[in-house]
Automatic annotation (TrEMBL):
Keywords: Cytoplasm, Ribosome biogenesis. The keyword Protein biosynthesis does not apply. Belongs to the RimP family. This is Ribosome maturation factor RimP. It comes from Flavipsychrobacter stenotrophus. Its main location: cytoplasm. It is found in: Cytoplasm. Residues 84-150 form the Ribosome maturation factor RimP C-terminal domain. InterPro entries: Ribosome_maturation_RimP, RimP_C, RimP_C_sf, RimP_N, RimP_N_sf. GO terms for cellular component: cytosol.
Length: 151
């Protein structure tokens, strides 16, 4: 983890301490474009994003990390099509339909029903079956997991 990413992490953590918000990822591009991806157990609203952005931008501007203000900052949720990255995101999405791609590139789609420290359980319905079957997938076998949008 780069020094700048560690610094941004350290600046945000006191802002979200005691809340249901959490950091999903921080990325820094070579042109000093800082992208902070956050989520919250109750949802990461635009108001929360704006609040974190304003406070963090002000701190970075004031502390001289970027001479001449040569940086940009984005604070947002990861986006609905982004893979789940943390245990907390899996827990937040219990009851939703997700597709898990395992390390052998096999997809399994089902309702996320349980999450533990080591594995997830999906209720998977086969095409002609009426009853869903529980499928347990260890985290170590998950390549990617994406929440499915149902309209």
């Amino acid at each position: 983890m780069s020094e700048l990413i560690q610094k941004v992490y350290a600046l945000i953590e006191p802002m979200i301490d005691g809340t249901d918000m959490f950091i999903v990822d921080i990325k820094v591009k070579p042109v000093n474009n800082i992208k902070v991806f956050m989520d919250a157990d109750s949802g990461f609203s635009i108001e929360r994003s704006v609040s974190i952005h304003r406070r963090l931008y002000h701190i970075l501007e004031e502390d001289g990390s970027f001479p001449n203000g040569d940086f940009s900052l984005e604070v947002s949720s990861p986006g609905i099509d982004e893979p789940l990255a943390q245990l907390r995101q899996y827990t937040k999405n219990i009851g939703r339909k997700i597709t898990i791609t395992d390390k052998e590139d096999k997809d399994t789609t089902g309702m996320l029903t349980e999450v533990s420290e080591t594995e997830v359980t999906l209720e998977v319905k086969k095409l002609k079956e009426k009853i869903a079957t529980p499928v347990v997938i260890p985290f170590k076998n998950i390549k990617k997991a994406v929440v499915q949008i149902i309209f």
